[in-house]
User: Fold these one by one.
Assistant:
Number 1:
Amino acid sequence: MVKYTGYWQPNYKPTKNDLVMLYKMKPARGISMNQAAEAVAAESSIGTWTTIATMSPEIKKMGAKVFEIKGNMVKIAYPLELFEPGNMPQIWSSVAGNIFNMKDVEFLRLEDASWPRKLVTSFKGPKFGIPGIRKLLRVKDRPLCGTIVKPKLGLSEKGHAKVAYEAWSGGLDIVKDDENLTSQPFNKFHERIIQTLKLRDKAEDETGEKKIYMPNVTAETSEMIKRAKFVKDCGGEYAMVDILTIGWSGLQSIREANEDLKLVLHAHRAMHGALTRNKNHGISMLFIADTVRLIGVDQLHIGTAVGKMMETKEDVMMVGEEIEGGFVKAKGHRLQEDWHGVKPVFAVCSGGLHPGLIPPLIKMLGKDIIVQAGGGVHGHPSGTKAGAAAMRQVIDAVMKKENVREYAKTHKELDQAIKKWGLYNK
Ligand code: CAP
Ligand code: MG
């Protein structure tokens, strides 16, 4: 073990310009907690595994400071000059980079962060946020509801558009592409956009409601921007991106292009589980949520806690912890907390949902959520349109504070859904 010196500074008080990070760590065998914390601080700021002749007292002042160790939780303050404002890849390469593979730690999880104002305001943030989306959809005081066209892959452009039309006609606000549908031989992107927006218009005319299509533009960055432009030119209002597989550079690029495109950006988080699932090692969804809110998505998948994916209620509530020492976490949902004027982001709940799971979700998270069900709509005994109607009916029942089981007696699509999948009021 190399001796890292000068990074453990228990009397250091973080300044308002520091980026303060919270890590959970388990030192490697034979390494103390202090040594592990200093190793992480060194490697994520200015140091390396040995003392170097090129170091100077001036540069040492820029080093990260471990200022608190409580149990397996470590707080490290990073001076602002270590970072390039507006450059998210660089920030992650520092505080979420080499450190996860160091021999000095057996486990390391990046749990949370408090960002200094100068870094927060160096990013664009959401263009629309919750207020802008509610204005666009003309839906003020209920959760938005949507579906994902299923099967995930395989439908033709026309087949895809028809499923979307059925879902909109049944009452859903939003229809999205699945995360791995982009432009495959059986369903080419441009043709899909043309066909699906044509039936969106038809559904709008017939229902009198605003209907949203969220096409997946995930691709190489310049191609992604071209596809987003095409969506805009065809009268689309949304673009969906898989934020982790396009990376922070790709996300910043499309957000930059979106200054002119003015599309609502929907953030799918495919692959997040590789980082977030293991509670001993990896990166929390809190930090991912902060990151993409700063870059500027308008909606972000956060899980359901009641559906098919692993996350817990705490994961979905996303309140984080009170981390004194230079900053205090909000009491509300991380995506909507006041943050130097950054717009609030719509939380998207999806993954194994069906109408019977919507009541506990609204109870847990309130009305400022978007609920999406794929299998839970297209798997309805009477098909997509009925599945969509059942989703809308259960939301109406909850918002009217009706007894859902009673309400289902006069709403057959909801009744059928409950008979197939059950009703959960826990
Ligand atoms: C849901 C989904 C979403 C997941 C992503 C899927 O379909 O389309 O991608 O919700 O998970 O492909 O599984 P179902 P998360 O409604 O049929 O489950 O939202 O947790 O990121
Ligand atoms: Mg999906």
Number 2:
Amino acid sequence: MKIYNTMSKQKEEFIPLQDGKVSMYVCGPTVYNLIHIGNARPMIVFDTFRRYLEYKGFEVNYVSNFTDVDDKIIKKANEEGVNASVISERYIAECKKDMEGMNVKPATTHPLATQEIDGMIQMIQTLIDKGYAYAAADGTVYFRTRKFTGYGKLSHKNLDDLQAGHRDIQVTGDLKEDALDFVLWKPKKEGEPYWESPWCDGRPGWHIECSVMSKKYLGDEIDIHAGGEDLIFPHHENEIAQSEAANGVPFAKYWMHNGFLNINNQKMSKSLGNFFTVRDIQEKYDLQVLRFFMLSAHYRSPLNFSADLMEAAKNGLERITTAASTCKRQMEASVVESMTAEEQDAFAATDVYVQKFEAAMDDDANTADAVSAVFELVKYMNTNASASNSKEYLGKLYDRLQTLCDVLGIIVEAEEEILDADIEALIAERQAARKERNFARADEIRDELLAKGIVLEDTREGVKWKRA
Ligand code: AMP
Ligand code: ZN
């Protein structure tokens, strides 16, 4: 399997540090608002990559943090007149709901920056002891960038160019030794959350958070570190400097970065205001459609969001789920149990789609080509399966489709459709419950129906219902 490594700018053969095991860290969102679909892109593509690693038999330790202390969180908390933790806890809960809707598996660990402050203080102290960091007069601790010889190796930037870029923004009275130095710890400001430290009451810089959480949950050296390409510089460059200076070993073996989700060819971002939240999309589409849309492009390519592409994704996804439910119905109708010799050959003829799927995913997680292989399997099923086939043959085709879709995080399992008669029966039961003033049961039935997409309306003429 090959992975494009941002560090070497090449596709490299993936060889994990430990046989059969993969340690993977994906930088997570800053939680001050509902996530937008740009933030959803790394979640979906790296979840898919994780699923593929698991499909290949690797045991994956997948860590993705929540940045729960940050200027934007504090600003929002001040606007609402609440503690920063109220904001971060609220949006972590909302983010987890979105992840569930997009069928993104929970990470092995989702660490929170605010719960790891001791580790950050320790790492900063190590950096000071080794001469890689210093505390300025006001208690700010800076990383001594020029002391770390590999600085710029991920983003392929050279220090002198960076220095030139900094010249115009360097202000007099700056407490840094050098314009390139970046913050590890900063003093508290009025009304901000803070922690005690040897240097001042304050809070960590953003970059040190990931170095510490990665070290704690995955170790000093990890296999894969991932995130959006906007994180390459300075975030990941700074993480490398901190981790390698402190731990004395290479940090991550492979660096994977997803391209931007754009809108009108411009990066979707909170600050530009050109974003759709995952919730906005959910009003119109099942989030499976959003997931499928993301996977229709290669993760490193820019992807332009458009209504047309979402419609195309919806149709594509339907082709797959329809094939799955048709196959299921055929299985139910079939009267033959075991596969015939011809069916064995016919099933073996689908091996090629699995091979294509794997070859695509082995080639730097090319989900676009993997999706094409799934479509080929669907096409084959549409022409080579019917209720006159055996249950075993149909079952094997169904499982094959489901297995591949499961790697993509696409759910093919057709929802059990609720029959009109069942709805009527539940409505009658609800009316009876109400008569007995058992409102709890009546509400329960309403919710149960709602969960199945049935909306009840109490009218003068009685209860009416419709499928949402
Ligand atoms: P943030 O909360 O801005 O730190 O972003 C969380 C994750 O989403 C990071 O990995 C970002 O690189 C990624 N991200 C943010 N905006 C986009 C976008 N428009 N397209 C793709 N990834 C993005
Ligand atoms: Zn990070």
